[in-house]
Automatic annotation (TrEMBL), chain A:
Keywords, ordered alphabetically: Membrane, Transmembrane, Transmembrane helix
Protein name: Cytochrome c oxidase subunit 3
Keyword NAD carried by entry: no
Gene source species: Nannocystis exedens
Region of interest: Disordered: 1-21
An annotated GO cellular component: plasma membrane
Annotated ranges, domain Heme-copper oxidase subunit III family profile: 35-227
Example of a GO biological process term: aerobic electron transport chain
InterPro entries listed in its UniProt record: Cyt_c/ubiquinol_Oxase_su3, Cyt_c_oxidase-like_su3, Cyt_c_oxidase_su3-like_sf, Cyt_c_oxidase_su3_a-hlx
Single Gene Ontology MF annotation: cytochrome-c oxidase activity
Transmembrane domains' residue ranges: 36-59, 79-97, 109-128, 159-186, 207-226
Compartment annotation: Cell membrane; Membrane
TrEMBL record, chain B:
UniProt name for this protein: Caa(3)-type oxidase, subunit IV
UniProt superkingdom: Bacteria
Basic and acidic residues composition bias: residue spans: 161-177
An example Gene Ontology CC term for this record: plasma membrane
Alphabetical UniProt keywords: Cell membrane, Membrane, Transmembrane, Transmembrane helix
Sequence segments annotated as region (Disordered): 153-177
Residue spans crossing the bilayer: 27-47, 54-75, 81-102
A Pfam family this chain is assigned to: COX4_pro
Localisation per UniProt entry: Cell membrane
NCBIfam families in the cross-refs: caa3_sub_IV (TIGR02229)
InterPro entries per the UniProt record, alphabetical: Caa3_sub_IV, Cyt_c_oxidase_su4_prok
Broad class of the protein's primary localization: membrane
Organism: Nannocystis exedens
Amino acid sequence: MSNEHAHAPAHDDDEHNPHLAHHFDTMGQQTASAKLGMWLFLATEILMFSGLFLAYFILRMLYPEMVLEAHEHLSKWAGGINTVVLLTSSYTMALGVRSIQLGDVKKLRLMLVLTILCGCIFMVVKYFEYSAKFEHGMLPGKYYSAHLHGYEIDGLPHIFFGVYFMMTGLHGIHVAIGLAIMLWMFVRAGRGEFGAKNYVAIENTGLYWHLVDLIWIFLFPLLYLVK
Amino acid sequence: MAKVFLNGQPVEHAHEVHEHISPMSTYNAVIGALFVLTGLTFAVSFADLGPASLTVAMLVAFIKASLVVAYFMHLKYDDKYHLFVFLGTIIFVGIFFGFTMFDMKSRDALNDEQETFVRWKEQENAGKGLAVGVDNVPERRAKVLAEIEAHGGGHGGGHGGGEHKAEAKAEHKAAAH
């Protein structure tokens, strides 16, 4: 026992680290556990969204013309701007993680602000898109009334807009939650809770945000672009 | 200090946090590639590729997703167990998609044989079209029509003939109920 201690003087560093929870032996183990947990959570997220993607593919298979016709009513430009905005936010988030890896808390906070800003732009564009859809009666299921507003789409467009609103809506909720988490991380970073050896919360926030970006990478071409 | 195990393997320098720090040039190259690929999908969507467009769009999306996962999410440098979790998920998504699509594609013959979706088929055969959205709820439909009336008629988009044709078709559908 005492022999082991003699071999490991570096462990002192960990034992005094105030951010090491008592049920972990080392910071390395704590970090690895948190990240594994995050990846398992992301796995459930992917599986949840996959159900919606499958609904889209089935709808497309059953009513190809209808999906093509209905998607013409979505704004390619709004979707394109949101794609660029979300990719940029992923970039700033990745740079934020890099900053804290190098121990630069100030730059981390700047990057978090930039990421939050991009997320907000995304939500504003989404708001205008949704408003236009509401106004034209392009709503899901029994709320669909675009044909009464003079927009004829053959087939079952109320199901297409059901899928559209479920996919973009669930994605939008994820963006909103991401914004709240990043605000929380911004505050925690300000309190000096993160450093070059203790940043797994930032890294996990990044992983979540990148997943939100990842889902949009598939949503955008499928809903807005595909012919 | 007790021996530390991680993912079933003893950890040799457990006190260290092993993290790969990518240089700025990597992040810049990745975001550049992502923008270029986004531009490519956008441009391709205007070209008429027919049935190939879905394949092309999905291929580009997969490349973009791989870049984000490998470099932004650090899976390239991370513990291989995280890669295993991620790829495992993708495999299950593949099984989910594969079996469901196979079922959907081979279902038509079964539906005809077992006469499922009879109401749907009868309506279509009678040329009545399908009841869409508010058409299924007469009260809500009346409410929406009243609202449109109050706002001085519909928006009458140039899509498919405008208000009058839509109105006539909607009345026709309502009468069918």
